[in-house]
Amino acid sequence: MNNPFIIGLIAWFLPGVGHFLQGRPIRGATIAIVVWLMFVIAIVSGGAHYPGFEFKDGALLYLLNIFARFGNGLGALISFVVAGTPSPNVAALATFEYGGRFLEVAGLLNYLAAIDAADIAIGRKK
Predict the structure, then answer these.
(1) Secondary structure, 3-state, 71-89
(2) What is the mean pLDDT of each run of 10 residues along the chain (126 residues)?
(3) Cis ω before 51 (30° cut-off from 0)
(4) Beta strands in the chain (DSSP E)
(5) What is the pLDDT of residue 80?
(6) Which of 18, 42, 78, 126 fits a disulfide with 103 by CB distance 3.0 to 4.6 angstroms?
(7) What does the pLDDT read at residue 90?
(8) Is 85 exposed, middle or buried (0-12, 13-18, 19+ CB in 10 A)?
(9) Residue 24: what pLDDT?
């Protein structure tokens, strides 16, 4: 598969798979392990329910949070489903805000990995 757009889209939706498709299994496995591990830690920590505010409360912060969470690809769908049924005591967790940051950083890291996979497919990077 040589289409950089498709490679980038696959790399975004399934972290690490874009590199696997290009014959870079170590890089793909490293990316997949790091992004998914951060994602799982974030979900277990209650990060899917952070921030506890809506668009009207802080539009810029809310949009930045959504953009970063959307970077998780398949994980974004999972996090939005988990966030749809909040636990009544999730805000009481000591790790609540850390989980939110882990979820955002995992998404932003996955954006970088997808761009890296697309750059390799284009030929700008070896």
Answers:
(1) CCCHHHHHHHHHHHCCCCC
(2) 89 95 94 95 80 68 85 90 74 76 93 95 84
(3) yes
(4) none
(5) 83
(6) 42
(7) 67
(8) exposed
(9) 93
What pLDDT does 123 receive? 86
Tokens of 123: 């030929």
Report which of 38, 2, 37, 31 is spatially closest to residue 14, judged by C-alpha positions.
31
**Encoded amino acid at 23, one letter:** G
Distance CA 24, CA 66 (A): 30
Q: 72, 14 in Cβ contact below 8 A?
A: no
Residue 47: DSSP 8-state: G
Structure tokens at 100: 């939110």
Residue 24, token pair as written in the block: 């870079």
What tokens does 38 get?
A: 């951060």
Half-sphere exposure in the Cβ direction for 54 (13 Å, CA): 1
Q: Does residue 4 have a cis peptide bond before it, meaning omega lies within 30 degrees of 0?
A: no
